[in-house]
Amino acid sequence: MPPRWKRISRSSLIGEQGIALIHQRVLDMGYLWYPTGQVEAGIDGLIELRDPMTGVVRNSIVQVQSRATEGDFDGETESGFSFVCDERDLDYWLNGNAPVILVRSRPRTHEAYWVSLKEYFNDTERRKSRKILFNKFTNSFDVSARDAIWTLAIPKDAGIFRPPIPRKELLYSSLLPVTRYAETLYVADTQYRLPSQLWFEFNKRNAKAGGEWFLKEGRIFSLQPLDEFPFCEICDNGSIERFKTQEWADSDSTDRLRDFVRLLNRCLSAKLFKFGVKFDRQRNHYYFRASEDLKPRTIPYTSLNNRRSHREIFRGYESTVTPNHISYYRHSAFEGQFLSLDASWFLQITPTYRYTWNGYHVDGNADERLAGIKRLERNGAVLGQLVMWGALLSKPPDLFRQYSNLEFGGLQVFRFGYGIDDATWLPKEENEEAVSINTSGELFS
Residue 124, Cβ neighbours under 10 Å: how many? Predict the structure, then answer.
């Protein structure tokens, strides 16, 4: 009779490969890994926390159950997959007071994903279904999971301080520095009290006059020369005063600063108008006008990595109820506020959207639609809008868009030697642009 050799199944090898992958990932995190070596125990190993900065271990552990496969995950797509737990396993994992994580892996492709079982099945409906939905973007079991696992193992009242992660961090602010404005500010007496009266006089003379002026207490304040046509015909030329605009920008007078900002806002409107952007006084935001044929409109700009990119700034969305019917149009917009910080002036940009029912008039559900997309958008999508507006406003003047009364530098960027791992408190944002564009069509159609 031939000898009966001991056999090791393929599934056992894959299981060991899964354990080995977990071991490597835990070491990459700077933690310690202790395999149990007991196949029937229901727990494949323990992670002991170790502070990567000091090397101190704190006798805080996380229990790990591994489930490895060689083929496709159940219900696998590009973004996720599912896993149904055995009832007896689940009862075992949820008992006791130690945190337990499940790591689902595919060693062949070096993929590993995890969930905290007690946190995930804290929901009654989830517990009843025994089903876990893994997100490939947010559930990766790699170095990005380090801080989340630390938080899982350390009691909330432990009072342990973790030093910030030593890495270079770039923080992009919403501040655009004002690099240039008109050198001279003009003030003169005038008999006119309403802007409409001045525009009537300008139109009567077929004069093209800019809007960088305002009326106040019987006087006109302007960055346009008041001693030149057509302004010389609507003011008392003998009363014209000239000031260095810098004096108003640096003034300690609240009134002068308020008037200076008022003129900056007039300049901003004039500058943006050349790019097809209008100002809505009632809603206090600047927005891209609709295209003439109401078709989607995109503009080119330079992204953060200095690549040429395009952004959709106007688009109609079809109704989900009535086929071939545009329910509403969405316009890229922003709220702008001029701020004085450390003797310098900045424009603070707050990206937003404008919703119209025909490309021109505000939609009846505009506020609800805006609230809906604000709930959906994450940091990446908002940053994309911010960068687009910053690139547009800081764009060097060209032959068709020359405007010297107001110029901006690039967005303010701050560099730090320490950073925050966003993956531990925000979902990953690879597809956020798609969320901001595609899901908004489903709101209030």
Answer: 8
